Each structure stands twice: as C-alpha cells, then as structure tokens.
VTC domain-containing protein (Candidatus Nanosyncoccus alces), 241 residues
Amino acid sequence: METKVFDRIEKKYLITATEKKKFLKVIRKYMKPDSYHKSEVLNLYFDNDNYDLIIQSIDHPEFKEKLRARSYGGYDRVFLEIKTKIKGQDANVGYKRRVMATHKDFSELTSGKTTLAELSMRSIENSNDFQIAREVDYLIGHFSLKPKILITYSRESYKGDDELRITFDENLKYRNQNLSFIKGKRDKIYFKDKRNIIMEVKAHGVIPLWLVQLMSEAKIYPQQFSKIGKVYEKLRKEKNV
C-alpha cells in the first residue's frame, strides 16, 4: 500500500474554455505539465443513507471531513482518501490522508468481506499505512458509510515551484446507480453553460504574485465549489436522493 499525507491551501474558480486558453499562455511560462498531465478521474464518494456527511459539507462548517475512493482510468489502483478541510479567512486549508489498494481489494472492502486494516497488513510499508487504514475502517463503521455517488471528469494538471499545482477539471459527470469505476453512457452531465471548467489552485503557503495578478486582471475570483456538494444538490432537485 502507498500512503500519502497532504496539507495545502486550495482555491477554486469557474472559468470558460476561452479563459482557460488565455490562462494557459501565462501558466506555461512558470509551470510545467505534471507527471500525469492528462487523466480521467473517477471519484466514488461514501456516505450513509441519510447523506449526513454531504449535507454537513454543504452547510460550510468550520471543519468537515469526507471519505472517497479515487481511481484513474486505465490503472489498477484505488486510493481510499480521508479529506479534511478547515475554513480559513481567505482560503480553505485541506488535509488529505490516503491509502492505496487494488480494484480487487476495494471490491472485497465494499462487499464487507474484509476491512482496510486487514488489507493493509498484506503489503504494509510503514505504521502510517495501518493507522490510516484503521481511520477509514472507523469512519465506515461509525457512520455506516457505503459508496453513494460517482463523479467523473477529465483533468489537466500543471506543477510549479514550491509545490504549486494548478488543475483544470472538465466534462464533469455523475451517477448514483451502478456504482463501479467504469464510465457509463448514462452518466449525467453537470454543467449546462459556458463557465464549465473548474480551475483549482493548490499551494503550500503563499500563492505567487504572477498568479494573483493573472486572476485579478481577468476579474476571476475564487468561490466555494464542492463537486460532491453540487452534484448532491442537483440529485436532490431531480428527486434521485
């Protein structure tokens, strides 16, 4: 298993394809394509039958936590991730702890055949593996969590100095039935207008001046946009949750 722990400032912007094209001309002067420059991301969010974790997140509390499983198209990897966010004055500070498993292991976990802690013992690399696996198991058991909503999108990512990262997420789709890591023809499209790209800036510390100026000149401002929160609200309007 592979364990990662992240903490960083995160800001999100909704932009158009034209704005993205203009931004990239500047971004490419300071940043390079990430190791996985373009990828298909599939996020499977866990919750209980009352959707308590998602509803809590929508209320914008000072502290929120969620559990998701992330996979990338074409790779036999599933990352079980605990995402924690603490509201700051200018931006949210996010913490992410994750453990990696295979698709087979993930199927055993969600079917109730085993726990993540038991799976982590098969390929444990350090004590963090087991500790984070136990945290995941606790959340699943304590809140009666299970896979509830799948969200997919195409991601283009860039990296810069001081671990600055900018991602562009497009073609956001979702479903809350047939929950497997396979993109379906009946997946629903979330955005209906031109401002349909989610640009996210992730930084450890201060965001560089050139990027601040770029956003200011374009009159693009950060906003709250939780993919799972927005999709849940749309499903609720459709009376599908």
